[in-house]
Design goal:
7% of the residues lie in helices and 48% in strands. The protein has a 22-stranded antiparallel beta barrel. A hairpin with a 4-residue loop joins strand 20 and strand 21. The radius of gyration is 28 Å and the shape is globular. The relative contact order is 0.13.
């Protein structure tokens, strides 16, 4: 009887995990999350949140249906706060998986997840969109100080999902779902320095976080101090013409201090927050820096640049269900005041000053709902509208110009539609699978540049329960940045520039600032994607993505100085009678066309370590859900955005970090490879074509054809080890080809970081001897373990003076320790 019951239970759980989601927004099953926390013998594990379903029922079936006699009842519920979209998550982590990372903050966790959150869309992708409980937030400040122990689940979704929240589809989406009940006071201190010494960084942070259903409070104070590192401490060779002793008066790392205060308060509206929520956030940051850039030519005193920036920020998020629609309004504002004092180079005891005031206000209202029902499911719609304003007031005594004032307003609106075409669940061409059409259009009216339009179309195809395909086409217009257009002209003498054609580093007078002649950019992107849950490897998946970009009138900073760029912009370069470079105009430029294509593919693998402890709640086999959920089924479900409000039932407390519900450890490995097929730039109409994969360059070292990213680690019985690594292939930058010239070769670069940590609270002997160590964690970090720096050489194998390894990376191997304690 016991064997029969066990077999039925296992079969039921597998069936529930593979059942298609019952919503056009695709909320995935959550029974396995609850099972890990259920008491021994409790197969529901659901509390007030659970709905009883038979093993043969799909997720989302009517809970009022009576199970047939003799069937085992299992739990298959949606977690409130999950993102509901036709595109399934690429990666899903539960709280045990998150604890295995040993991250001290959400910022650290995002850094560790960089291979999975990176995007190849556009010309390299953007920062991921961050959601909290399935909703927009006013800014990352709202959640950056939330302790990772408070996260119940994390979802990483493809770029197309960003459209549903009013963002452009060039960023992946990360959704953090919080536990319903959690409280912690956290103190953290960290110290680190290069293994060769010279500089050090000390950080201290204290925070309070408390969540109870729809209400949250988060208060954080932090301070960071970094000591300077001078060129003389690394033996940096000085350029020709430098004054003796200049190395001791030039910093590679500035002396800096940062103070930050951040506060976030959220309250639910109505009974148990069912009428919505209101979030207020405020932050203040002060940054002081001092750097040195050589010797005064008259007094031989060190020349200093001293800066102070004070930034005040605030945000409001209001969320409210309106019938079957979910309304979210966000406002984010910031004010930054900066002052920089710069010593004059050839005048005794006199300084120049640069002042700036930067203000911005961004507002956006989104409404998400289902306005229409089709045989294959509900049509989903996201309607948005907003206004953004930014302004810059700046002055600089080094210029003859009066105070510069720049302003821009942006009135925007847009719509996104998700139209289900076929559905297995609703028996609409079930043999085809689940096919959804996605359409979007946006309009922006800029006060200083005119009208911009965007539109996109895409298909999401759930071929099988384990295989999903996506295809999308995006046309996007973009305006140059405010400072690209209107920044004041600044002339800076004695800037070291490497002249490839003469194989020498020259001290050059450089002009920077804005360029009013910049034009409107048009980007055209194609993306093809595949997400396959690997058979026989629970919690693992293969992700394959192809990107192609074509852009016209691309705004770019002035490219790295090469013979090809000099030929394309001859009016920007000044040489003396002997051909020596003496001046360079580096205002932004408009490139006629840029085209690129790349393939990015990767594996996400995960599993468990050891056997579940006797009497444990029976977590998922193989550990987490690194592979995400199955491709969703079509059909309707609960109102979109329902996860932002009320309680999530059966919440968790703030127990010891990293203690898993079933006694197992965790391991995971993610490996991604990017290969560039094409990357070309047409500088001007009829101008030269730069092949960035074959020796031409717009920035430092050209574009590598191949690159690798990896992250992984293991956690067991309180001991954890994490690693991240990157590798880029070698590149070269071509010279003129003349006898006196020489190519530059940028060598391959591999960097690996290690983090070892121990949850002291899980070591019973230590806690008994020192009770203070309960809920404490100690970590040892080594960045750039192999102490690698990119090696740059000319055709003779000599390292140019401007590319000395310690100028490229003065830190090298960095060793740090961290002690974190929760109360």
């Amino acid at each position: 009887m016991r064997r029969t019951l066990t077999h039925c239970l296992t079969t039921g759980l597998v069936a529930a995990a593979l059942a298609p989601a019952g919503s056009a927004f695709a909320a995935e099953p959550a029974a396995v999350d609850r099972a890990a926390d259920a008491p021994a013998g409790d197969i529901t594990g659901g509390g007030a949140e659970a709905e009883a379903l038979t093993a043969s029922d799909p997720v989302g079936a009517d809970p009022r249906e009576t199970p047939r006699g003799g069937e085992i009842v299992v739990v298959a519920t949606r977690i409130k706060g999950q993102v509901e979209a036709p595109q399934p998550p690429l990666v899903t982590l539960n709280e045990e998986d998150i604890a295995a990372y040993g991250a001290a903050s959400i910022t650290d966790l995002l850094a560790a997840l960089a291979p999975q959150t990176g995007s190849g869309r556009g010309r390299g992708g953007g920062r991921p969109v961050v959601l909290l409980n399935g909703q927009r937030i006013s800014g990352f400040r709202e959640m950056r100080n939330i302790p990772p122990e408070a996260i119940r689940r994390l979802e990483i979704l493809p770029e197309e999902v960003a459209l549903r929240f009013g963002y452009p589809p060039d960023q992946r989406v990360i959704n953090f779902i919080l536990k319903d009940k959690f409280s912690a006071r956290t103190v953290e201190t960290e110290y680190g320095q290069p293994d060769r010494g010279g500089s050090s960084t000390t950080e201290v942070e204290g925070s309070l976080f408390r969540t109870m259903g729809p209400s949250r409070l988060n208060l954080t104070l932090s301070a960071t101090d970094t000591t300077p590192l001078f060129e003389s401490e690394r033996g940096v060779q000085q350029a020709a013409g430098s004054l003796p002793g200049s190395a001791g008066a030039r910093t590679l790392i500035a002396d800096s201090r940062d103070l930050t205060a951040n506060a976030t308060w959220t309250t639910g509206l109505g009974e148990q927050g069912l009428a919505g929520s209101l979030t207020l956030n405020g932050a203040f940051t002060r940054n002081d820096t001092t750097s040195f850039f050589g010797l005064n030519g008259l007094t031989l005193d060190p020349l200093a640049r001293r800066g102070r920036t004070e930034t005040t920020e605030g945000g409001i998020t209001f969320a409210k269900p309106l019938g079957t629609w979910q309304l979210t309004a966000t406002v984010d504002a910031s004010h930054a005041a900066g002052l920089t004092l710069i010593d004059r180079t050839n005048v005794a005891r006199q300084t120049d000053s640069a002042r700036s005031l930067t203000d911005s206000v961004t507002s956006l209202v989104t409404a998400v709902g289902r306005p229409l029902s089709l045989p294959a499911g509900d049509v989903t719609a996201t309607i948005k509208g907003g206004f953004a304003w930014s302004g810059i007031v700046s002055s600089d005594t080094r210029t003859l110009l009066a105070e510069t004032r720049l302003r821009r307003g942006n009135l925007s609106t847009g719509i996104n539609l998700g139209v289900p075409l076929t559905s297995r669940r609703n028996a609409v061409l079930p043999g085809v699978g689940d096919l959804t059409l996605n359409l979007s259009a946006d309009l922006d009216r800029l006060s200083d540049f005119g009208t911009l339009t965007d539109w996109s179309a895409g298909l999401t195809w759930g071929v099988t329960e384990r295989l999903g395909l996506q295809a999308s086409y995006i046309v996007n217009q973009a305006a140059p940045g405010l400072t690209d257009l209107g920044a004041p002209l600044v002339v800076t003498p004695n800037v070291a520039i490497y002249d490839i054609s003469r194989q020498e580093t020259a001290l050059v007078t450089v002009t920077t600032g804005g360029n009013r002649q910049l034009q409107r950019e048009t980007q055209r992107d194609i993306k093809l994607g595949l997400n396959w849950q690997l058979p026989g490897l629970n919690g693992s998946n293969l992700v394959v993505e192809y990107f192609r970009n074509r852009s016209d009138n691309v705004t770019a900073g002035f490219p790295v100085f090469t013979p090809a760029i000099e030929a394309a912009f001859p009016g920007r370069v000044t040489r003396d009678a002997g051909g020596r470079l003496i001046a360079l105009n580096r205002l932004p430029v408009t490139l006629a066309e840029q085209s690129s294509s790349r393939l990015r593919y990767g594996l996400n693998l995960s599993g468990g370590i050891g056997k579940p402890a006797p009497g444990a709640g029976g977590g998922r086999p193989g550990g987490g859900m690194m592979g995400g959920g199955p491709p969703p089924g079509g059909g309707s479900g609960p109102p979109p955005g329902a996860g932002g409000g009320g309680p999530r039932g059966g919440g968790f407390g703030g127990g010891p970090p990293g203690r898993f519900g079933n006694g197992q450890g965790r391991w995971n490995l993610s490996l991604y490879h990017t290969v560039q097929f094409e990357n070309q730039v047409i500088v001007g109409a009829g101008g030269p074509v730069l092949d960035l994969l074959s020796g031409d360059a717009l920035s430092g070292g050209g574009v590598a054809r191949h690159s690798l990213e990896a992250e992984g680690g293991a956690f067991y019985r309180g001991f954890g080890l994490r690693f991240t690594g990157t590798w880029t292939a070698p590149t070269r930058v071509r010279s003129t080809g003349l006898p006196a010239s020489s190519d530059l070769r940028f060598g391959a670069l591999a960097k690996f970081n290690l983090r070892a940590f121990i949850d002291l609270g899980q070591q019973k002997g230590l806690v008994k001897a020192a009770p203070f160590l309960k809920n404490a964690r100690f970590a040892l970090m080594v960045d750039n373990v192999l102490d690698q720096r990119q090696r740059v050489t000319d055709g003779t194998g000599v390292v140019p003076i401007g590319y000395q390894p310690d100028l490229i990376d003065p830190v090298g191997r960095f060793i740090g320790v961290e002690l974190r304690k929760q109360f």
